[in-house]
Design brief:
By secondary structure, the chain is of the alpha/beta class. The protein has helices at about 5-30, 40-50, 55-65, 110-120, 150-160, 175-185, 205-215, 220-235, 245, 270-275, 295-300, 300-320; strands at about 70-75, 80-85, 95-100, 125-130, 170-175, 190-200, 255-260, 280-285. It has an eight-stranded mixed sheet with strand order 1-2-4-3-5-6-7-8, with helices on both faces.
């Protein structure tokens, strides 16, 4: 190999330094936003009501009556994590328990529309966690669902200790959907019966690549640098967080939902995720004209019906034993 000239060596050093600094900036920009957690609660209360009017009043009323309760447990990496939970509207006739997982930058409040749907219309117990670095949970960064799966595994045990029935489901939207898909590939108790993912990305690397391209001519090498920074500071590489790998291990039923007008998480990710699940029962619903995380807001009645019918199918499969086929 020829020796590097001083000018070339300096240029390469500057490029390397630029890549490292750019990767560090990108990792922290994406994973440690300045406004988050408790400081962001008021915005998310407004967002909850914009998605379904009256959501926060419903929530506050349940809290005032002592029906909706808060709980904190020690989660992954010893951070204190938070969730709220409530019994079904008719507890003695509860059909199961739904764990509802929120999206990037939000918290349990934003997805009160799902809490209301499950509790009031479908008669399920509910547990709604705040992922790390969100809501009332501690954390050093956003984990994009990947490390969050460890906390969800913990919440599964907590939910069962509060509502000890034999039917539990996980339902997530956007990053919450990715969290659910990542969790679906883990060894799970028999009482976890099925999953619903709504507009989840297929992989963190793919989603970040798409976001970078949307921003303009930014070197994609930044992803490699940002991934290295993320591993060094937060404990995981972007390439690890691949829903296809988790879904290939999933054997329990799953409903896949995505709006065909979604330009944030590509609509094409729906088919990638659906195809990656090669074992067990699955359904797909495309919400026409729905943008990202908008399927319920655009089609509340159909969304509820699709979820209810899917859950009825799973209940029937359990009763006739075909869920194990």
């Amino acid at each position: 190999m020829k020796k590097l000239t001083p000018v070339l060596a300096l240029a390469l050093s500057a490029l390397l330094m630029s890549s490292c600094l750019g990767g560090k900036y990108m990792a922290h920009y994406a994973l440690t936003p300045k406004v988050h957690g408790v400081d962001d609660i008021e915005r998310t209360r407004h967002k909850a009501d914009s998605l379904l009017p009256g959501s926060t009043q419903w929530y506050d009323n349940l809290k005032a009556q002592g029906i909706m309760k808060d709980t904190f447990v020690v989660g992954y990496n010893n951070y204190r994590v938070h969730a709220v939970y409530a019994p079904a509207a008719k507890p003695e006739e509860a059909k199961g328990t739904a764990i509802i997982v929120h999206g990037y930058g939000d918290n349990h409040l934003v997805f009160l529309y799902l809490g209301r749907m499950y509790r009031e219309q479908l008669n399920y117990n509910i547990l709604m966690p705040d992922l790390q670095f969100h809501g009332y949970s501690e954390g050093d960064s956003i984990h994009m669902g990947w490390l969050d799966r460890y906390d969800i595994l913990n919440w599964i045990n907590v939910a069962y200790s509060v509502f000890p029935n034999d039917f539990m489901l996980l339902h997530g939207v956007s990053m919450g959907a990715a969290t659910v898909m990542f969790t679906s590939g883990e060894p799970l108790p028999d009482y976890v019966r099925c999953f619903i993912e709504d507009c989840g990305y297929n992989s963190v690397r793919g989603e970040f690549t798409k976001n970078l391209k949307d921003m303009g001519p930014i070197p994609l090498d930044l992803l490699n640098s940002a991934s290295i920074v993320t591993h060094r500071e937060f404990g995981w590489y972007f390439s690890e967080a691949d829903c296809s790998k988790a879904l290939a291990r999933c054997t329990k039923p799953m409903l896949f939902i995505h709006g065909d007008a979604d330009d944030f998480v590509p609509f094409s990710d729906l088919q990638k995720n659906y195809d990656a699940k090669t074992h067990g029962y699955k359904e797909m619903w495309v919400a026409p004209g729905a943008v990202h995380a908008n399927a319920y807001a655009k089609y509340p009645e159909e969304y509820t019906r699709r979820v209810e019918n899917f859950l009825k199918t799973v209940h029937n499969m359990i009763e006739d034993g075909s869920i194990y086929d």
